[in-house]
Amino acid sequence: MQAKPPANRATKAAQPRMSFAVAMAELEAAGTAQAVKTYRRHGVTGACFGVSFATLKEMTKRIDVDHELALALWNSGNFDARNLAVKIVDPHRMDEADLDRWASEASQAIGCGTYVAGLAAEGPYGLSRARAWLASKDHAQVLVGWSLVGQLAARDESLPDAFFLERLAEIERGIHRAENAVRYGMNNALIGIGDRNPTLRDAALAAAGRIGRVEVDHGDTACKTPVAVASIAKAWAHAEAKGFSSPAAQERQRDLPRRRC
Question: Can you give the pLDDT at residue 43?
């Protein structure tokens, strides 16, 4: 008896793209007044629905990557929409002008600026944007620039130690004279550099010892400024206990910061 041919299996329909209108409506419905209040206390200004980062993560999983939707969400100017935009955008389709504009417009509150730095580090313009933003007259770009230095320390293995040693010297010279938020960014960059490899760990620890305590006013929040020496030591102990050659090597095995939280 001739065997019957296998039954045709229905092809799973592709997930339809989420429209800008649907995305904004979903964000608005997920927002809460309490979250808005919390975000305002952390410095968020302008339009904001108050969407939790758990909700943003769930939406990111459903959308995955949608560059056009990301651009539309960013252009809305809404804080929550922009935080979703940086999670679903394609970093390799962002050119230098796009990155410059997003760095200028990014809120420094609760992640957004750090996420834009991550985008730059993932694409081909990380080094050029770091140099440009740190030299910029645009305060927002300077802040994102220091976040980018930390991201590059963790992710771009091609960069020479000399680049980061120059940044350490710049941090040591200027951190105590810098504006409040820039001090915080410099301190985090110092820690990121110290997590890259043993040579830079030693250089960062020496710089941190000379810098001493870094004072940052976090306003009406529970945020604290990490102590660089202790943070670097803790990161190395944890990485080595897990069998990694450095905290940076451990970080490269994790999901991207802008996608995981």
Answer: 85
